[in-house]
């Protein structure tokens, strides 16, 4: 390796370690679930997005295996060249019906769905108006566009601040198009966007709305259809992004909206144009996951029962969950070093709960991000709660101030 590059990389890594921001991923050695083996150790896993436990659901597994027999393991091309199989189209049609939209276009990931859609629908005559806590994939998608978007120029509103959003809408009426973009469920705080207010302001000021429902899919709305369903805003949210890798348990992302939007993204969405299609067993597994979500309410009911228990009992023990309204349950710590030490001590106790530090959240706003799911048993959560209590005692209450 070039010496200059090697020296730079070594220096940057040492800086991360000195600032308590360095991460090493643990290795999962079993299927995703409430209890797993990682790095040779059995732990209660509180850091998975497998909300409904579908990543290892027997019906989903069986569908994937059948698809391998029928289709093989790869599509062989990007979709517009010849990689679109009938199973991909079936998935998109099912998702459009699920989302109550005209059409859906599937991308290889939620990140690529944002980076494919946002630049394709915006030009240098447009502006993006964004919540300050939006996900990194939204931010990067916006940066790839030629639209105006910078906070320093007044186009980012304080988190869920509808007065500031309206002020920005008033000040940006000279732009050709104005897109308001927000997470449906905010991934680090677990709160829900005020989507009815956003939609009403968009209609009043002739703007359009894009919502990233990565963490609302499978969690909110009828059968987990997301925030537009949760708030009964069908037809009032112009672009919806969903992920297929969290509650649905597989991989991918999609854009739901009008048929014209799908047609445009097929022609101008660069990640779609230049990425090989999903393996057919992925599409088949996702169709099976949708079948479970639409016909079996048990996983979603169990998810929310576990979520309520977890939040109530953390609060009863004096932990600060930062106003979370969804299964995403942050446990506020503040100091980065204390958060990472808490993660290490929990691991020793048999609980995997990831510490979230800068730059994922602001400096001094570190937390443990916990994720109860349908895959957890009552015993799993009770075990984890007692581990949190013991670790706080070891660290001292000042570590959680």
Short description:
By secondary structure, this protein is an alpha/beta fold. It is built from 15 helices and 13 strands. It is globular and about 55 Å long.
What do you see in this structure?
The strands form three sheets. Strands 3-9-8-7-6-4-5 form a seven-stranded mixed β-sheet, sandwiched between helices. A three-stranded mixed β-sheet has the order 1-2-11. A three-stranded antiparallel β-sheet has the order 10-13-12, covered by helices on one side. 44% of the residues lie in helices and 14% in strands. The chain has two domains: 27-51 and 297-400, Aspartate Aminotransferase, domain 1, CATH 3.90.1150.10; 58-295, Aspartate Aminotransferase, domain 2 (3-Layer(aba) Sandwich), CATH 3.40.640. It has helices at residues 3-18, 58-71, 79-83, 86-99, 110-121, 136-144, 162-171, 195-204, 227-230, 259-268, 270-273, 280-295, 298-316, 336-349, 378-395; strands spanning 35-38, 41-45, 103-107, 127-131, 156-157, 178-183, 208-212, 239-243, 253-257, 329-334, 351-352, 354-356, 366-370. With 401 residues, it is of the alpha/beta class. It starts with a helix and ends in a 6-residue tail after the last helix.
